[in-house]
Specification:
Layout lengths: L8 H7 L3 H12 L14 E3 L5 E3 L5 E2 L14 H13 L6 H8 L3 H14 L11 E9 L16 E9 L5 E9 L4 H11 L5 E4 L13 E4 L9 H17 L8 H13 L7 H11 L5 H4 L3
Parallel strand pairs: 4-7, 7-8
Antiparallel strand pairs: 1-2, 2-3, 4-5, 5-6
Helix pairs in contact: 2-3, 3-9, 4-5, 5-8, 5-9
Length: 297
């Protein structure tokens, strides 16, 4: 079975006509990694008609969805594939209420599965940003009327963003993540997770970046009301507008998953031809996640 390429919905529908077609696709991806029986640890298996794998020693059978983010999908694997296709290829904002109507599931079911997809959209961290990288922080929830600069209001959601620029100053890649505060202790994680030590990092003159400059090549300049960081502030505006206009409310617990979705589409905008296969591969390679992990306490 060949990988699906492109964004044509009719071609996608033709390739994935049944749940069995989807199981076959998952098994093709699983076969690219070494098999190890979960019960006895043996490495040899037989492929069954439903594309599950059965251990040659203890006969333990593993479904094509087992130990993936498709684990125990109750509304049908084909619907799940279509939701992944929609989330990976669309340029529109997708809410849980929209997906619920479009695919005939409850809003709660759509929201939980979309969070699983967002989990898969997270970066592997294997290809950190290099070259010129601009970094800044922002707040979700609006500015305080009588105050300029950073807000320390505990109720507001705080985040940090890093943007890798091309030679002509356009956005090549970006990552955003939630932070608890604007301290170096919080800000350092976007450097550790997403920025190469070889990158030329530029920030404003916030003192929280000074300790990080011991490990990274950081140049601090005046922000000039954002004029010195035009591409960076454009992305901040876009991600804030996307969250504000698409979702009624975004929990702090799942904020990073929403950032995953936004950055995934931006970072793979030049590779739309294989973006669906890329997402499904990430869904397979991620460990299963339970609903309790997706709901904030």
């Amino acid at each position: 079975m060949s990988i699906f390429t492109g964004q044509n919905l009719l071609e996608f529908s033709d390739q994935f006509k049944t749940d069995l077609d989807c199981k076959k696709y998952l098994s093709m991806i699983k076969d690219k990694t070494a098999y190890k029986c979960l019960k006895c640890g043996h490495s040899a298996y037989q492929r069954k008609a439903d594309f599950s794998r059965q251990c040659n020693v203890c006969n333990h059978r593993e479904s094509s969805t087992a130990n993936t983010l498709f684990h125990k999908v109750k509304f049908g694997l084909r619907k799940a594939f279509f939701m992944c296709f929609e989330m990976s290829t669309t340029t529109k904002s997708l809410s849980a209420s929209y997906m619920a109507v479009r695919f005939g599931v409850t809003e709660s079911t759509a929201r939980m599965f979309m969070h699983k997809v967002r989990e898969a959209m997270s970066s592997s961290g294997n290809n950190p940003m290099d070259g010129i990288v601009h970094v800044d922080e922002f707040v979700l929830g609006g500015k305080e009327e009588t105050k300029t600069g950073r807000s320390y209001d505990a109720k507001k959601k705080k985040a940090v963003i890093a943007v890798q620029l091309t030679e002509d100053g356009k956005v090549k890649r970006m990552y955003a993540m939630k932070i608890e505060d604007f301290s170096a202790e919080s800000l350092q994680y976007i450097f550790v997770n997403h920025i190469s030590r070889d990158a030329k990092v530029v920030t404003d003159k916030w003192r929280g970046y000074r300790p990080i400059a011991k490990a990274y090549d950081i140049t601090q300049i005046e922000s000039n009301n954002g004029l010195n960081f035009k591409a960076l502030h454009t992305m901040i505006h876009q991600v804030k507008s996307w969250l504000r206009t698409t979702y009624f409310w975004v929990s702090h617990h799942n904020l990073n998953r929403y950032f995953n979705e936004f950055c995934f589409r931006i970072n793979r905008s030049q590779n739309k031809n294989t973006i669906f296969n890329n997402l499904i591969t990430k869904m397979v390679n991620k460990n299963k996640i339970y609903q309790s992990e997706l709901v904030s306490s």
